[in-house]
Amino acid sequence: MLTGNCKLQTIGSGFGNPDQRDRGLGVKINTCTMKTKKQKIRGWDDWTNIPKSPTSKLLVEVIIKYPALKKILHFAPKERIKFINQYYLSNYKKLLTSNLFDNCELIGTKKRPRGIQANIDKSSLIKLEKVSYIESISIINIEGAKEKKTTPKIQVKFFCVKLTVAIEIETLDKGLQTYEERFVLIKALSSEDAYKKIEKKKKEYESPYLNPYGFLVRWRIESLDDCYETYIDNENDFNNPDGIEVFSILKRRKLTKERIWDGKLK
Fold it and tell me: With contact defined as beta carbons under 8 Å apart, do 142 and 125 qualify?
């Protein structure tokens, strides 16, 4: 339905700007490859036969921006959370009282509303785009328009597979064995596909040769330890002057005195 009055309905807390959903260690944001300019209104290209009338109704999802870090730093950690919650709540109330929407549904929680899903006139959409505290506006439905039928494209991505490779020398049965941690960047449809491609190449990796002393040596793939989906979209990304991330893993270690950060920005 695209009609009705503005009212409070919670539709979930999992929505919002994906860059801001998790400020802890749960989500890692790749800042090296996310420099393209974002369009505030998204989804126009998904529709055809859009009515020309400025009063035609659209169903949109409106997401509020995460507050600027510089506005929060002078608070203590607990006060920062309170400030963020109040920031979202204040801007959420501004949306509700803007008289631009009908049939509003809350995105997020009552304590921290991330935005709204609501009906809006096409003419009001331009006004909404100019609001400074709005992160994005996604078009969910357009009354009287037809959604374009698209065939999903099979997307090949770049994956980095971490291998443990044992260097085996003929008849060597004591002492220390040298091994290698190898990182292989490979095009694949998924992590499972990347593993399968490495498995198919195992024989080639393990092809033996003679060392200077006449002993056979082989580099045997002992294990496939991890697979990392990169943010590399195509070969042009390798020309990025800022570099590009190909592998990352989170580990834990003892927090020693020299590793303690007081939170001050230099």
Answer: no
| Annotated domain spans of the chain | 41-147, 157-250
Say how many Å lie between the first and final Cα of the chain, rounded: 53
Strands of 93-215 (E only): list them: 101-108, 113-121, 134-142, 146-147, 157-169, 179-188, 209-210
**Long-range pairs, 245-248, Cβ under 8 A, ≥24:** 245/30, 245/32, 245/33, 246/158, 246/160, 246/183, 246/185, 247/160, 247/162, 247/183, 248/28
- What is the total residue count of the chain? 266
Instruction: Give the type of residue at 194.
Output: A
Nearby residues of 162 by Cβ (< 8 Å), 6 or more positions away: 181, 182, 183, 224, 225, 226, 227, 228, 247
Half-sphere exposure of 143 toward its Cβ, with a 13 Å CA cutoff? Answer: 15
Backbone phi, psi, residue 142, to 5°: -125, 120
The CATH code that applies to domain 41-147 is: 3.30.70
Q: Please enumerate in sequence order all residues whose Cβ is within 8 A of that of 249, keeping only pairs 6 or more positions apart, or say none.
A: 226, 228
Residue type present at position 264 = K
pLDDT digits (tens), the chain, 266 positions:
333 455 555 555 433 333 333 344 433 434 333 333 457 899 989 999 999 999 999 999 999 999 999 999 999 999 999 999 999 999 999 999 999 998 899 999 999 999 999 999 999 988 898 899 999 999 999 999 999 988 777 788 999 999 999 999 999 999 999 999 999 999 999 999 999 999 998 988 899 999 999 999 999 999 999 999 999 988 899 999 999 999 999 999 999 999 999 888 87
